[in-house]
Amino acid sequence: MSKKQKKAKEKGNQEQVPVVSILGHVDHGKTTLLDNIRESRVQAKEAGGITQKISVFTIKPDKDKEGLITFIDTPGHEAFDLMRLRGGSIADIVLLIVAADDGVKPQTVESIEIIKNSSVKPIVVVTKTDLGKENISKIKRDLSTRGLLVEGMGGNIPIIEVSAKTGEGVSELLDMINLVVEVEGFKKGIDLSEGTKGKGFVLESVKDKFRGNVVTFVVVEGEFVVGSWFVYQMEDEIYFEKIKAFLTEENSNMENLSKGFGGKVIGISKTVNLGKEVYCFSHKDEDLAKELFKTEPEEEEQEVEEEEEVAESEEIGQEEMLADFFDEEKEESEEKEFRVFIKSSSEGSLEAIKKSVEKISVEGVNVKVIGTGIGNITTREVELASVAKAVVLGFEVSFEKGVEDLAKKNKVFVKTYDIIYKLIDEIEDAVKALVTPEDVEEEIGNAEVREVFVLSDGTQVIGCKGMEGVVRRGEKAYIVREDDIIGEGKITSMKHNKKDIKEGSKGSEFGVVLAKSVPNVEVGDTLYCFTILK
């Protein structure tokens, strides 16, 4: 047994397991690589093929060798930068994934900053090499210009080329992880107070329909044992709860989780906030818990401010807060307000969506999240949205009974999504629509003027042949000659061979009557047809 193993055993731990976080740009093959390592099919199950929650897996990469590795799979979409930060901050090693066919992208740069501002040991992994390796030299240069010096470019950060599809380079990557751990060692451990069996770090909290609140966490010191106390703090209150069971990502039962292992604890009464420290106690010791959760005055003041903001948001139904939405000063302001209620299946997704929504910036519109929550959309949210003139959006949740009928009755927009970037994109589109003119003309078709004649009753008929799109009765038309508008009017009548028609398309011939005659219209002019968008 090595000195390292003996030291771990003396602390009551098993052999220490390295924690590896995976960071990088969306669709660069992070989850596909992990699938290859553990021979699973996780990516195929993700909505849109994009990881949208943090997951933690402990695997034995080589059946013939000793040693385990814990991987933290972090979402790649930019909305999850907070979760990536948390994933990167507790790891011993970070794999920075860069696709060979795509190179360094915005989220790659974000991940580089996380690495540079942390104590983790990075390994650069160039994926999708089965699609070609011609961009690898450029990737190395781009990384170097951003302060990440890889081997061969004046630095000592390992760079491995892999193809998750073919398996090329995966074994070499696992060997490199073990080599970095052997050479660099683990992050310095912490001393646990007497009575404290373990310390963990919350990665995700989900309100599960069947299991209740499920908290995903990773053990950073000591161990967590079924039957012991799971201790955490929410706002100013400390909670002690008996650990009923641990589950792996594959839903296998575990009796204990030791340092470097991650898993899910079920049966917790609260959805514990992301990034929170949690402890395992042998006995229910309130004095010890208060000592562990004691914060510096400045930090405490900041937390109180944040809690007040959350409380303010949660109490949105009260009269005094709703009055704030509709005060005279705001009604008179030129800036419009787009208000949103957000419901999500997990704390991590909720926090990430809220941050992304609040970052939406469109001149003339203030986007405001006026309420959030975990779980399905209820009639309560619809009622509040009706009063506050807000929309209700859900991520990976459904509607409780009566929600859709109530929303229709009160004319409240409610919608759910299973891909986060679609939710963000649709909010942005809606916000942009608020600042567009009330009436917008959109061209739907045009036609060439072939003949002009006047009926016995004085009605002017413009004979046309459709060139693009459609010309439709009831819409507005412009007569254009050499880029100059010589006349306009609403199309009141259309005929084809003396038969009334509603519209004429490309290649068809038809006669058009405008509400107001255009005296100077000539053969060769162009008729443009526009519809009015509100």
Describe what this molecule looks like in 3D:
The strands form four sheets. Strands 7, 8, 9, 10, 11, 12, 13, 14 and 15 form a nine-stranded antiparallel sheet that branches. This protein has four domains: 171 residues, 3-Layer(aba) Sandwich (Rossmann fold); 97 residues, Translation factors (Elongation Factor Tu (Ef-tu), domain 3, Beta Barrel), CATH 2.40.30; 124 residues, Translation initiation factor IF- 2, domain 3 (Rossmann fold, 3-Layer(aba) Sandwich); 94 residues, Elongation Factor Tu (Ef-tu), domain 3 (Beta Barrel), CATH 2.40.30. Helix 4 runs parallel beside helix 5, helix 12 runs parallel beside helix 15 and helix 13 runs parallel beside helix 14. The protein contains 15 helices and 27 strands. The relative contact order is 0.08. It is elongated and about 105 Å long. The chain is an alpha+beta fold.
